[in-house]
Design brief:
The complex is a heterodimer. By secondary structure, chain A is of the alpha/beta class. Chain A is built from 15 helices and 22 strands. In chain A, about 45% of the residues are buried. Chain B is an alpha/beta fold. The longest helix of chain B is centred in the last third of the chain and has 19 residues. Classes of the chains: A alpha/beta, B alpha/beta.
């Protein structure tokens, strides 16, 4: 049974199992009520009849008022498809047996296929003993099986998330909000699930006017199949002086990492890869975090790359996401969906550092990057990532992230500023390039209205160029 | 003293409405679903039934059907209330006024007064 929550059915291995009994646990405000309503209106559209029973929860009028602005809400489904009743008074006066009787009777009266019990913690508190509560869940499970309805019981976490009393249910979903400093985000975890291969671990979700939207953790949903063999297809930048450094080009579908400090030319270098793709009639995608699409187009146009027309024609796609408060899996989903939707063959992600800042847990970056590049390889998209190095000058060459991304990338380019003969120059060197010969010399390159031009090797003997503090081999600075 | 029967499965709403109406000088009976309402009515005939629409056991439409079917309750005024969009209900039940939940106290009192005055005018 599909939930109507984008991304969740993938986490659950297809959805909920019909006639199953599920517990959704989470702190107040975690999104349980919204989730249950979203499921009801989604299933209601397909003809299901849903009974929503509240115990000590917000009033139905208030609940519906909160739902009215949600895209999934459909007032026409009330009261035939989604029916709200309160079971609190029955619970107060008749205890769990009375509540169970009410649930059974109302399920029959409304020919219910989905039952939501919002406020299970009230039933738990009303139970005389842990055994009574277990009995209540057991009897509800028997009813669900006999009457063929699926039950969702919502409860706030009171004590341990997974009570021993919950062991009989078919699944437990936990929703929670996490905070780090001033930043917060929402997480979903399937704590137990019978009947399906779920994606383990923690997944991010967000709440918007669309309701809940789950973004399965990329590493968990990553396909294990090997990427297709790109054969002999190679990819070039379309800059003769640059392509001459590695005449064989980079492998189609490969991943390249371009390191460099701010202003070293990473954006233009990566954009030239896309510009060449557009010239060859390919679909290209730029994902950036700092420059707005307008500024980017202006910037590349000033370097001889007019992409405006390609954007209008739908051949060049720009995903721009201001770096504040991004969610890592949302970014991955946006990127991979766009690549798949438009059959993109060249991708430039301008700002791997901004992407990595979207991960509250930095230890995840390496595995995330490996999963992301695997998916891009499977889609045969040749991808460049730019990664900002923190120092403009100095003898230390920093690797800003852990070794992960550079180990996963087949190709590694390094851009640098150097002060030479009273001028600040831009340098390019290739650290590694898989399966092809390349010129390892350190080259100066220039950016002009005609684009990028890589200059011939230096004609004087210089050392420590990459430190940004060049000196003649004979000693002293030039 | 006029008698109002309030029927709602949400106990908080039921108690709040009962208190408000008592403060306004009405005698108030309460029931948490339609069947309980019918039991109350058989004990004491109210002047007005203020009923919710979605309820367990016996819902608002079924309650109204039963009241209308009983000749001795012919003069009892009816006032519906629901969190569901009441627009279609007004069309479906043209003789019954509806309050859209959530409503404020003046709107409630106005509708209650209007329903009772209408009954008095009809009988007088």
């Amino acid at each position: 049974m599909t939930t109507g929550v984008p991304g969740l059915d993938g986490v659950l291995g297809g959805g909920l199992v019909t006639s199953g009994v599920y517990i959704v646990v989470g702190e107040p405000g975690a999104g349980k009520t919204l989730f249950a309503n979203q499921l009801c209106y989604h299933q209601g559209r397909d003809g299901a009849r849903c009974l929503y029973v509240t115990l000590l929860a917000e009033s139905h009028a208030r609940m519906l008022a909160n739902m009215r602005d949600m895209a999934f809400f459909d007032s026409a489904q009330l009261p035939e498809s989604v029916y709200y009743v309160s079971g609190f008074r029955t619970l107060e006066e008749q205890g769990l047996p009375g509540l169970l009787e009410l649930l059974r009777r109302e399920v029959r009266n409304h020919n219910t296929s989905i039952l939501v019990l919002d406020g299970l913690v009230q039933a738990q508190e009303a139970a005389g003993s842990s055994r009574d509560f277990k009995k209540f869940i057991h009897e509800l499970q028997v009813s669900a099986s006999l009457s063929r309805f699926t039950a969702l019981m919502l409860t706030s976490s009171n004590g341990p998330t997974v009570h021993p009393e919950y062991t009989m249910v078919d699944g437990i979903l936990e929703l929670r909000e996490r905070t780090l400093g001033v930043r917060s985000w929402r997480e979903l975890q399937v704590r137990k699930f019978r009947g399906g291969a779920t994606l383990s671990g923690v997944h991010t979700f967000r709440i918007s006017s669309q309701g809940l939207e789950v973004f399965p953790r990329l590493e968990a949903r990553m396909r294990r199949t090997p990427p297709p063999d790109p054969g002999s297809e190679r990819v070039h930048f379309g800059i003769p002086s640059l392509d001459a450094l590695f005449p064989g080009g980079v492998a189609k579908g490969s991943t390249s990492l371009m390191l460099g400090p701010p202003g070293s030319g990473k954006t233009l270098m990566g954009s030239s890869l896309l510009s060449e793709g557009l010239r060859r009639g390919e679909q290209c995608l730029y994902m950036g975090f700092y420059e707005s699409p307008e500024r980017l187009l202006h910037k590349v146009a000033a370097a001889g790359m007019d992409m405006g027309e390609a954007v209008k024609e739908g051949r060049m796609h720009i995903l721009w996401q201001p770096p504040a408060e991004c969610i890592l899996d949302v970014l991955a989903d946006q990127l991979l969906s766009a690549v798949q939707r438009h059959q993109v063959t060249r991708v430039f992600v301008d700002g791997l550092s901004a992407m990595s800042q979207a991960a509250p847990d930095s230890s995840r970056i390496s595995s995330f990057f490996a999963a992301l590049t695997q998916e891009l390889r499977i889609q045969c998209a040749t991808t460049f990532f730019s990664l900002e190095t923190p120092r403009l000058f100095g003898p230390v060459l920093d690797m800003p992230l852990e070794v992960g991304p550079s180990a996963v990338a087949e190709n590694l380019f390094f851009l640098r500023h150097v002060e030479l003969e009273g001028r600040l120059r831009r340098l390019l060197t290739i650290f590694k390039l898989r399966d092809t010969d390349y010129d390892p010399s350190i080259r100066e390159f220039r950016i002009s209205r005609q684009g990028i031009e890589v200059l011939p090797p230096f004609d004087v003997a210089l050392d420590t160029l990459l430190t940004g503090l060049a000196r003649h081999r004979t000693g002293g600075h030039p | 003293m006029e008698t109002v029967l309030v029927v709602d499965d949400e106990q908080g709403i039921l108690e709040a409405l009962a208190d408000l109406l008592r403060e306004e000088g009405y005698r108030v009976l309460t029931a948490s679903h339609g069947r309980e309402a019918l039991e109350r009515m058989s004990e004491l005939r109210p002047d007005l039934v203020l009923t919710d629409w979605m309820m367990p056991v016996l819902d608002g439409p079924a309650l109204i059907e039963r009241i209308r079917a009983e000749p001795s309750w012919a003069g009892v005024s009816l006032l519906g209330m629901s969190a569901v969009d009441v627009g279609p209900l007004r069309v479906q039940y043209p003789g019954i006024p509806f309050l859209q939940k959530p409503f404020d106290i003046p709107a409630l009192m106005k509708q209650v007064r209007k329903a009772l005055d209408g009954k008095r005018a009809a009988s007088g």
